[in-house]
Amino acid sequence: MDVRAAIALEPGKPLVVDTVQLEGPRDGEVLIEIMATGICHTDKYTLSGQDPEGVFPAILGHEGAGIVRKVGKGVTSVKPGDHVIPVYIPECRQCPACLSQKTNLCTAIRATQGRGLMPDGTTRFSYKGKPVHNYMGCSTFANFTVVPEIAVAKIRPDAPFDRACYVGCGVTTGVGSVIWGAKVEPNSTVAVFGLGGIGLNVIQGAKMVGARQIVGVDINPARAPLAEKFGMTDFLNPAALPEGEDVVSKIIEMTGGGADYTFECIGNVTLMRQALESAHRGWGVACVIGVAAAGQEISTRPFQLITGRKWMGTAYGGARGRTDTPKVVDMYMEGRVDIDDLITNRIPLEKINEAFEMMGRGEGIRTVVDY
Ligand code: NAD
Ligand code: AHE
Ligand code: ZN
């Protein structure tokens, strides 16, 4: 079938909006009509050419919501008409990772997904007769996509697509990192580095679990008012610190010895170190969420770990793709998570490059493409 898509033909170049061809679902696969998609910083990262797994041409996008239109042979968990979110962390419920119950990082299709292919090693998209790669197993910058059944989370039918799509990455990553990843306890102190589409969701997750202090760190002061609305209690702008003061000492002072939990939501290895070192001696946990490019490395004095700080990280907030995604949609529908305030820009697919430019200028939190 013909579908409308934004194609990443080459790294570092604007996307090309055109008609591409999509093959129907094969065995174990599902055809989804994507009704809305968010644009995440990770799409920009891959488009930049810095992602070692970035393959081109590809159809990017991994934050979508839509309706099942057709299922391949053997699919039993969803049917045409179901409202769904395609998830880049699938959940086969059979691999050692899923069975361990210790991680959300299902291994069933990770290898082919990382090469931009379906589990059988082929692609469903083509453009001008040539194959086009899939992205993160989702490819939501197209109004129809085909994904494996194990990567389809069924959600309640009354959730609006233009909000539910953000659950497919940003909301779940932020809120999930607090509740399923770091498992922040009530009355904790928390420091959040980066108050963008991920960090603000960490803040609302921390508020939800009853953190008593939430320090937000960002060089863009325009992010502070929304962060406050979401639960930030103290704002720290590293760029505005007086000469001789540093972020780590400041957080240690503000939290009375260091934060119980810190989250890096930027993708900057220098700040990852600061986040670790501003965690409390003896028990502080620093959670890396931001994605840093190939070749980037983190470092600290081992003494920081010997003295009881822990370094961890999360993908998709530690959420299990099919089990936990619908729970986050429920949190929104029940008024426990705010998504409306974070969607600051709505565009048709034709204007998708403008959204990437806005992201580069630090304008707005999330742009949603309505198909
Ligand atoms: P964003 O651009 O919306 O937010 C980043 C924020 O960091 C901005 O507010 C910016 O002003 C601030 N910032 C930049 N440099 C800074 C500095 N030196 N000091 C302090 N603040 C600074 O990005 P986002 O969508 O929130 O994504 C954040 C990161 O999370 C990206 O690296 C993205 O790829 C990653 N991510 C990871 C996962 C995961 O599963 N681990 C999921 C989604 C996104
Ligand atoms: N190919 C990238 C991977 C970047 C990465 O860590 N991605 C996160 C999701 S970011 C969503 O916005 C993730 O899920 N990681 C776990 C996994 O298995 O990929 C790179 O830099 O190599
Ligand atoms: Zn994302």
TrEMBL record:
Q: Where is the Enoyl reductase (ER) domain?
A: 12-369
Entry keyword set: Metal-binding, NAD, Oxidoreductase, Zinc
Q: Which Pfam families match?
A: ADH_N, ADH_zinc_N
Q: Which cofactor does it need?
A: Zn(2+)
> What's its top-level EC category?
oxidoreductase
Task: Name a biological process GO annotation.
Answer: formaldehyde catabolic process
Q: State the family it belongs to.
A: Belongs to the zinc-containing alcohol dehydrogenase family. Class-III subfamily.
Its job: Has high formaldehyde dehydrogenase activity in the presence of glutathione and catalyzes the oxidation of normal alcohols in a reaction that is not GSH-dependent. In addition, hemithiolacetals other than those formed from GSH, including omega-thiol fatty acids, also are substrates. Also acts as a S-nitroso-glutathione reductase by catalyzing the NADH-dependent reduction of S-nitrosoglutathione.
Supply the name of the protein. S-(hydroxymethyl)glutathione dehydrogenase
The species this protein was found in: Oecophyllibacter saccharovorans
